[in-house]
Design brief:
Length: about 210
């Protein structure tokens, strides 16, 4: 008797393998250039801006690799790579958001009005401008963009390939080789017109992280 794995479980296993391989590879590199690399983990959550069309609340986990590319008298500049798993709950509120021009629009309205779970598998690539405050603290601005795969179709987004754009500010405090991070952010997800639905989601989030410099 054959047992077929759930596609969502397969995607999670693949991402887990990628994260482990990613961590090991860069950990080996970091041992050679320990002044420039930091490895970290973070957890965050958030939800949509207040509106009458839909609800969307999410929580996410990231593996983080920081690499310092330049340091001046007042600023540090870093590249940040972040594999991410994002789990969301979405529901259509505005019945008329689905237009009559859409095929089977009446059935679609009923389907989209139900609460849906949305899984996203993301690879964020960002740029950080950091301002040290004394020897232990810093503030920074982060901008990132990256491809993602979403496993659920909604009235706002087609299933499959899309992009996540993030703009964030943050505060860090250091203790020995550890750095603790607090990061509010704004996030936009859309598929750049590659799918039939591309209204996307806009969310505000808060994120907590810890990183280590080998």
């Amino acid at each position: 008797m054959f047992v077929f794995a759930n596609p969502k479980e397969i995607m999670i296993r693949k991402l887990r393998f990628f994260i482990i391989a990613f961590f090991v590879a860069f950990q080996l590199q970091a041992q050679e250039k320990n002044s420039n690399y930091r490895i970290g983990l973070s957890y965050g959550f958030g939800g949509e801006f207040s509106n009458t069309d839909y609800t969307f609340e999410n929580h996410f986990y990231k593996v983080q690799l920081y690499y310092k590319i330049k340091e001046s008298r007042n600023f540090q500049y870093e590249v940040l790579v972040q594999p991410e798993i994002n789990s969301g709950k979405h529901q259509l509120l505005n019945y008329y958001f689905v237009k009559p021009e859409k095929p089977d629009f009446e059935q679609k309205r009923i389907e989209y009005m139900k609460m849906k779970e949305v899984m996203e598998y993301v690879l964020n690539i960002g740029f950080v401008v950091r301002k040290p405050i004394g020897k232990m603290c810093s503030i920074y601005i982060l901008g990132s963009v990256g491809p993602l795969i979403t496993d659920t179709e909604t009235e706002r987004m087609s299933k499959g390939f899309a992009f996540a754009d993030v703009l964030a500010v943050g505060f860090t405090a250091s203790y020995h080789k550890f750095q603790f991070d607090l990061r509010p952010s704004l996030r936009h997800v859309s598929n750049a017109g590659l799918g039939s639905s591309n209204a996307g989601y806009n969310t505000k989030n808060i994120e907590f992280g810890i990183s280590y410099q080998p």
